[in-house]
Amino acid sequence: MTAGEPSATDDAGWGVEPPASVVRPFLLTAGRIAGGDSLVPPIPIETQVVATDLGLAALDAFVFEQHRDIITLCRQPQSLAEIAAKLRMHLNVIRVLADDLRADGQLALYAPQADSARDATVLRRVIDGLRAIPDSRGAIREG
Amino acid sequence: MVSELSPTPGARSVRADTEGPKPPLPVKMVIAGGFGVGKTTTVGAISEIEPLTTEASITSVAAGVDDLTHTPEKMTTTVAMDFGCVTLDPTLKLYLFGTPGQERFGFMWDDLVEGALGGLVIVDTRRLDDCYAAVDYFEHREIPFAVAVNAFDGKVEHDLDDVRWALDVADHVPLTVFDARERGSVRDALLVVLEHALATAER
Question: Is the minimum CB–CB distance between A20 and chain B shorter than 8 Å?
């Protein structure tokens, strides 16, 4: 594993460093962190994030480019994980920034319901959806 | 408050001030296993996007295996995590997260795994030891999981009964063989996990 290798290598492992931003990420969050030892339960990483009209209207007014980048990206719904990956920022920084923008009404966040993992309806929908995916040869799984 | 998505399409709770495209209900599964066992290959075989990498924090417990006199030291570590996604229909999107794996450490992936539908533990039969940590973790957290032997080059070195015995997984844990490079094979391995999760949910 060498630094700077593209993302698709297996088990990217430790110490892969994204390019440094002019503004250090945790300065932007004013030192606040999400996850880890924080007492607040972290927002799930698959939470969907969408820019609101208010956020899009404010695009030219953001002081920090990171806020603008998040709003721009979230014209289409994205997960927190996708935002972090595409903007090359730590997931926990994105959690804080997205929550700030949500508090300002510029982003809408949609977390999955807490119990959906044990919800038979959800599980059946996922099973049905996966079964419809053809394998590499285009065949659909029986059953 | 963060809005919650209802599992039923068309019935989601949406904040009154919300505008813009309606997102799908996001669900996730976790792909675990030792280093180099094929986690990212598995994600990439079925993901509709090239696997992305993000930095996340996990709590790692230093494995002082040879020295039981010390309390394991917990540290928050930043790791790179690969993931992909599959849009199952306009209202439902499945995310697949590959857990960062290092054999010499115990990991607490709670932050990443919370709310996962289930886990797939990928096993290379030449290096069975590498997946113990993942099996232990899912068992401990009571997250439905299946063990999938990655048949490198179509070959499996041991039969599944031997693998089950060696890993000491409970009889109810499904064990399967798959090819991480084949989309259909990955799909079927995920279905094994989900059907097990469904059976568990309905019990």
Answer: no
Per the prediction, chain B carries an average pLDDT of 82
Instruction: Name every chain A residue with its beta carbon within 8 A of the beta carbon of B118.
Output: 117
A51 contacts B76? CB cut-off 8 A: no
Q: Into which CATH architecture does domain B25-202 fall?
A: 3-Layer(aba) Sandwich (3.40)
CA dihedral sign, ordered B49, B53, B54, B57:
positive
Supply the pTM of this predicted model.
Answer: 0.82
* CA gap A84, B126 in Å, rounded: 35
On the 0-12 / 13-18 / 19+ scale of CB atoms within 10 A, A54 is middle
Residues of B whose CB is below 8 A from A122: 7, 25, 27, 117
ipTM for the assembly: 0.85
pLDDT by residue (tens digit) across B160-192? 888 899 888 989 999 999 999 999 999 999 999
Q: Do residue B12 and residue A110 have CB atoms under 8 angstroms apart? A: yes
Residue A140: count other Cβ atoms within 10 Å of its Cβ: 11
